[in-house]
Amino acid sequence: MLYNSTYTSWLHRVNPVTKLLLMLAGIIAILFIQNVNVMFPLTAALIVLVLAGSGHPRSRVMLLMLPFLFVFFSTSTSMIFFGKGSTLWWHWGIVQITRESFYRGIHVGLRALCFGLMGLLFVLTTRPVLLFYSLMRQLRLPPKYAYGFMASVRLLPLIMSEFRTLRQAYKVKGVQVSKNLNGMMQALHLYAIPLLAQSIRRAQRIAVAMEARRFNNQADRTYYYRIGFSKADIILIICWAAIFLGSWLLGWHLPVISITDVRLNG
Amino acid sequence: MKKNYHLTLTDILVTTVIALVFGVIYKLWGPLYYALKPLGLHLEQIIYGMWFIASTVAYLLLRKPGVALLAEVAAASAEFLIGSEWGLAALLAGLIQGAGAELVFAAFGYRKYSVGVAMVAAAAATAGSLVMDSLQGYIGDLAFWNLALLIGLRLIGAIFIAGYMAHRLVGALEKTGVTSLVRPLYDQSTEMK
Amino acid sequence: MQNVSSHTEASAPAAEISGLHLQFPRQVARLFRNLSLKIRRNENTLLLGPSGSGKSTLLKVLTGLIPEVIEMPLRCEHCSTFDNWGYVFQDPDSQFCMPFVDEEIAFVLENRALPTEDMPEFILHYLNLVGLEFDEPHRPIETLSQGQKQRLALASALALEPETLVLDEPTALLDPGGTEMIWEKVRGLSEDKTLLIVEHKIEEMIDFIDRVLVLDDQGQLIIDASPDQISQKHQYLLDQYGIWHTRSWPNYDSKRSNRLKLSENSTDNKNPQPVLKIDHLEGYRDETKLLEMPALDIYPGEWIALTGPNGAGKSTLLLALMQLIDQKGDVLFCGENVESTEQVAADIGFVFQNPELQFVAQSAREEVIFTLHQQCPEINGSEVPRRSRETLKQYGLHKVAAQNPYQLSTGQQRRLSIAATTVKKRKLLLLDEPTFGQDAVNTFAILEQLEKYRQSGTAILMATHDLAIVQRFATRWWKIADGKLKFDRPGQRLENSRTEDIHAI
């Protein structure tokens, strides 16, 4: 988990459900934005929010954002090189960069980047256990799902170290996997079967142990953590609205690019 | 013993853990294929099926309603919580993809566990993923040949991985004896068909 | 300490079953056939039996976990389970559901619907009961040692305020230190609770046991006696079932001195070449240096025991020698510098700590055949199945040759992984705690096989916790702590054998 309790900020005090709902609203809003000029200030604002508001050291955050840049490039280049368009700028072989495809590519790339940034913001400022507690209290998620998920996540480090041990064991035994389709099937078998067999057995044992501790799926259970709403929630809601509205206004009144709708009509 | 349609704690844990195992495998192999993406030939679509294999394996193993959807949601949630670059969209994608597979299993009354059913479910999950992608605007305006290539490769890859391979894997799992722990009693006599 | 069990016990039994029939799904044989027993209140009962006799399953029936949580075909005339019980399971890594220590105890308190305000105080209370006095109870469970984890499991069970404590081989996966700590805490609880314990190592806990029940491998209750009667009249049974007790090793010693000769000069070669030369080996994991070894030579026919506390670097050394982890320094095998795992995989055998992660085949027989195919090109045709049959027989696995490796018991899996490695004669065998968690029968079988290899010239480097093994089998003893070699001594068996030679004269 990326969350680290040593770095805190006001965003940590916001109820996880609030953050979740705001993110959902943000995604829906972004899906309706077709003007690439709106995306520029929006992306910038989100980057600032993540860097300044997450509470983590800037260098760490920037390192974590690197994969997002990769996503931006891979998503946008796909569209830039192979998207439809009429105003040809450059072509080479099957690659055809047009004015339309270029800006559509940028738009799509920025979309992906924004989704990622929102996710990163959430993950850096939310303690996973608290997320599940608030899902149970505020959204009435049945406890068996919440605790079940938390319990199996505990197995993750074990799965990873077993993966490593498997690789070592196969090396020692002299198991070789061919690099073709057959090889991929073989490799999937070699790793998936032992990992699944072990993990499923463990999962079953943990479930039995939880039941042995009188786990009940009742809503009348008590909770160790109390998560409510606070001033921080209100501040975030206001900030969020401001970011989106502000970007929208900036995009329409101070456009950088003359295209205001990246969708093609023909 | 009467069939219990509710998901027990054991079912939930086993399903989630299946999703995690495939997530780990995907994470450790995925980057190898992803480097191929900018070539534009969508070769990375071939392993897209790894996204759905958890749901088909979970269903073929546990044979209960809801596990296919749960597996996808669990995989997507785990992906989200570790700060993946796909963010909350991954979660929504998981929901739609899982729903696709779940609908197929439901259509067969949750009584069929054959490789054919798995392949159809894999195709449905792929359809779900395409819906998500087009909503996000990733694919709607690609040139036709490019789009056809993407859809074709993804579909074939998914049917092979999340359909055929999933069935083979569960067959092998049965031989390890793990199924006697987790599969409802009344089904013990039916082997993989 | 001992409660006198009287037949005129006034109160009702804590749990009772009669006429129990139980079957594993998809298995033809019944696990229990018409079993009846009674567990008395306020008594400490120990349940013994060979591996696979269903002791653990019986515990789950007596608590009601079977059939309520674990579905199994069950039939009994009368079955009354414990009414207020707490359960401690065997595997420290498969018991917890929360990431932090306090959350784990809080989980139980939540299940009991305790008010949130009261929780912190109770959490500290239960942690203190088991000796886990942390300044900050909010610490990740991952940071605890296996022994501490089991004590945490005990605390969680106690948090249910149970009348009966059921413990299912709680020390099976613990080292001697962890084992001692658990029994110390349980002993403190033995006075006022009903205890039902399944164990395989009874030396350290038999003192507070009032009653011993023994199941045989058919799931029949064959003995119901006091601990004294067991050690006086039924000790042979303990040895037969592989249960570790105070006299396990002495009994084995007296049997062994008639059978195996401790010949130290396994080769006639007066000046043998070292099989392995280590020269300032450093082992790394993710850029951190975990191990640093000076110059050392390993000769054919040596049995080197590698001991040290957990995390000291024993596994690291073995992995580094096999080039499975990042390292610096030189390792020379038979005079040649070792550059990669593939180079030496055919001549150095490596047995990992977790056998269940090594299987590539669908049956035990094929597992052994795999090695033959991969690494013994000189053996082919009908020789292959013959060799495989022979090896399986040596390890007592011929009866399960056709079974899927995952269906075997842990003892069988451990033996299978060693069998699959040793089917090919190796110059050097590296073993990472091969007898850990094993019952006495398996342990002795494995050690005797290894001794045979040693006598034929194989060098053995084995990590272990068990000093009894070190005393009896090791020709040389390396102790590692904090990633460094603390000493390199000759093994005690050399002294012992000289004493035996003297007696023979």
Defining traits:
heterotrimer, A: 266 residues, mainly alpha, 2 domains, two-stranded antiparallel ribbon, 9 helices, 2 strands, 68% helix, 3% strand, C: 505 residues, alpha/beta, 6-stranded mixed beta sheet, 17 helices, 21 strands, 33% helix, globular, disordered N terminus
Provide an overview of this structure.
The complex is a heterotrimer of chains A (266), B (193) and C (505). Chain A is mainly alpha-helical and 266 residues long. Chain A folds into two domains: 10-131 and 228-253, no CATH class; 143-212, no CATH class. Helices cover 68% and strands 3% of the residues of chain A. Chain A has a two-stranded antiparallel sheet with strand order 1-2. Chain B has 193 residues and is mostly helical. Helices cover 67% and strands 0% of the residues of chain B. Chain B has helices at 9-34, 53-62, 67-81, 87-107, 115-135, 144-175, 179-182. Chain C is built from 17 helices and 21 strands. In chain C, the strands form four sheets. In chain C, strands 6-7-8-3-9-10 form a six-stranded mixed beta sheet, sandwiched between helices. The relative contact order of chain C is 0.10. At the A-B interface, helix 1, helix 3, helix 4, helix 6 and helix 7 of A face helix 1, helix 3, helix 4 and helix 6 of B.
Topology of helices and strands:
The complex is a heterotrimer of chains A (266), B (193) and C (505).
Chain A: H1 16-32, H2 36-53, H3 58-82, E1 88-92, E2 95-98, H4 99-125, H5 128-138, H6 143-153, H7 156-173, H8 181-212, H9 231-253
Antiparallel strand pairs in A: 1-2
Helix pairs in contact in A: 1-4, 1-9, 2-4, 2-9, 3-4, 5-6, 7-8
Chain B: H1 9-34, H2 53-62, H3 67-81, H4 87-107, H5 115-135, H6 144-175, H7 179-182
Chain C: E1 15-23, E2 30-39, E3 44-48, H1 55-63, H2 65-68, E4 74-75, E5 78-80, E6 85-88, H3 101-111, H4 119-129, H5 146-158, E7 164-168, H6 176-189, E8 194-198, E9 211-215, E10 221-225, H7 227-233, H8 235-240, H9 248-256, E11 276-285, E12 288-292, E13 296-298, E14 303-307, H10 314-321, E15 327-333, E16 336-337, H11 341-344, E17 348-351, H12 364-375, H13 383-394, H14 410-422, E18 428-432, H15 440-455, E19 459-463, H16 467-473, E20 476-481, E21 484-490, H17 492-504
Parallel strand pairs in C: 3-8, 3-9, 6-7, 7-8, 14-19, 14-20, 17-18, 18-19
Antiparallel strand pairs in C: 1-2, 1-4, 1-5, 9-10, 11-12, 11-13, 11-15, 15-16, 20-21
